[in-house]
Structures are given as structure tokens and as C-alpha cells.
Amino acid sequence: MSFPADRPRRLRRTSALRGLVAETRLHPADLVQPLFVREGLDEPRDIPSMPGQVQHTRDSLRKAASAAATAGVGGLLIFGIPAEKDPEGYGAWDPCGIAQLAIADVAKEVGDATVVISDINLDEYTEHGQVGVLDATGDVDNDATLRAYAEVAIAQANAGAHVVAPSGMMDGQVAAVRQALDRAGHHRVAILAYAAKYDSAFYGPFRDAVESRLTGTRSTAQQDPANSREALREVLLDIEEGADMVMVKPAGLYLDVVRMVADAVHVPVSAYQTSGEYAAIEAAAAQGWLNRDRAIRESLTAIRRAGAGSVITYWATEIAEQLPG
Ligand code: PBG
């Protein structure tokens, strides 16, 4: 017998062989493109900490949505940025608020070609940048915030969202949203729960993108990066409350959580490759320190390999355009 007896390299010899035995593939339909739309803009505006991403005008958003749909992306995740913030975050459920107008534009533009998802939160709309209504001491009032989220959910569903995604990590938010949608006759609108959402530094560029006023962190609502078991608790609670799909966020630093959740549940699992994950790769690539294309593909493949069925990523359209449909 020749030595070595085992030669795993045999299956790595050509790209055809590697392709034949690849366990994980990227497909446009598994990618979700987040998009920002800002009220009162005449031209799209660059987001400096997210090179390549912009705050859209309503018009440029429609075009970006159409390009994403043409590339075959599985979904779009819409974030609105109001021209004025206010204490209650009223713009989040105002029928004429920027997100509602944009959701209606996009839903009309793409039809059923891709899935229109909207983020339920108040943080883009409040003066203080918190995710909800504040109590007398300045803390977020969990239960009062649930009533606001119910209004936001109905406004977004009325505007034409196919899926709504509560992201504030308030206790009971999925049940509150499900009940509100059903009472308003929107039983067909699905819920993608930001179920295991960590208190992460990797949302920094997003907060620039939405002109967030937040000072400090969200550590009393979002999960401690030190913990993985409570992710399961959050996910199972959300499913019990009516989540149709669950999400882990961020993605790349939490692949253990993605795997654990994917093994434990029977609903689709999504992972959100956040603004900070995007910015880190873009910044290193811009310096010539990383091969941009390889780093992006590897990061997305790793998230899928860990068990995420879909990946929310700012590179969705770009990558989808390069993939076979
Ligand atoms: C809340 C929300 C945030 C993100 C998505 N939805 C910010 C936060 O929780 O502070 C972060 C997304 C990213 O960093 O790409 N509206």
C-alpha cells in the first residue's frame, strides 16, 4: 500500500471536483437586501461608514428594489429614516411616514417577485434613539412599547409589507404584533422575529445610516454576547408567540448560536450580517489587506454552513448578480 493511505486532497484537485462535493452553496433566493430610505432627500446620500450603501430617495429606492428583484434576491428589508425625529416616534406608524410610503412604492414595484420585509422598531424615529416609549425614569417601558409596535405592524401591513420583523427585543413583542395583525385582518402577513439579537458593537454603522440619536447601548434589552443558552430561550418564546421565522443577529461572530438555533427549531432560520460586519470587510479590502470578493463569499458561505437558511446582507444584490439564478 502506498503512503499516505488516505488522500483527502483527491477531491480538491479541480474546481469541478470541489464543486461536486461542496455542501453549501450560495443562491440569490437565500439573500435578503437591507435598504435605507430617507425622507426629504433629492439625491441618494452616501453612508460614509458603509461604503457602497446609501440612504435612498423614494425614487432611487424603487430602482434599487427592482434591481434586487431582477437579480433574484429572496427579500428586501426596508428601513425608513424620517426628516424629523420626535419624542414618541410617531413617524414609525404614521400612514404617511417614510417607511409606509416606501413599502407601498416597493410592494407595487416588485409585486410577488421578491419578499418585502419591514423592520418594526421606533429607534429610527425617536429623538432619544431608544427602541420604544420611555417611562418617567427614562427607561424603555416594555408594555407601552408593545402597544406602539402593534400600531407600527398594522401601518406596515396596510402599506403592503409581506413580512414584518420586530427588532426591539421587548418581551412579548411577537405576540403583540401577531395579535394586532390578526385583529386588523392581516393574518397572511408573516413575522420574522429578531429572536436572538445581541447587544453588539457591530451595529455602529447602521446607527450612522439611520442618524440614530442613541447614546450608550441597548444592554437591558439585547442579549449579552457572553451567553448562548438564552438565545434558545428567546427563540423558543418567539416561536410560541407566533414567529413564522426567526433570526440570529449579528451573524459572523455568532455562528455557534446560528448552529444551535438551526438544530433546535423547525421554522426557517435567518442570520443578519450586520453593518459592522460589512464595514469591517469593506475597510480591510479598501486597504488591500483582504481580498474583497473572497472575504465576502467566505463570510456568507460560513453563515449558511452554520445553518442559516437565509442571510440578510448588504452585499445581497451585488452577490446575487454574480450567482447563477
Ligand atoms: C433596529 C435595528 C438595528 C439593526 C437592525 N434593526 C439597530 C439596533 O438594534 O440598534 C442593525 C442592523 C445592522 O447593524 O446592520 N431598528
TrEMBL record:
Gene Ontology MF: a single term: porphobilinogen synthase activity
Catalyzed reaction equations: 2 5-aminolevulinate = porphobilinogen + 2 H2O + H(+)
InterPro entries: ALAD, ALAD_AS
Class in the EC hierarchy, top level: lyase
Superkingdom of origin organism: Bacteria
Alphabetized UniProt keyword annotations: Lyase, Porphyrin biosynthesis
Assigned EC number: 4.2.1.24
Subunit structure: Homooctamer.
Function noted in UniProt: Catalyzes an early step in the biosynthesis of tetrapyrroles. Binds two molecules of 5-aminolevulinate per subunit, each at a distinct site, and catalyzes their condensation to form porphobilinogen.
PANTHER family (alphabetical): DELTA-AMINOLEVULINIC ACID DEHYDRATASE (PTHR11458)
Designated name of the protein: Delta-aminolevulinic acid dehydratase
Organism field: Nonomuraea guangzhouensis
Encoding gene per record: hemB
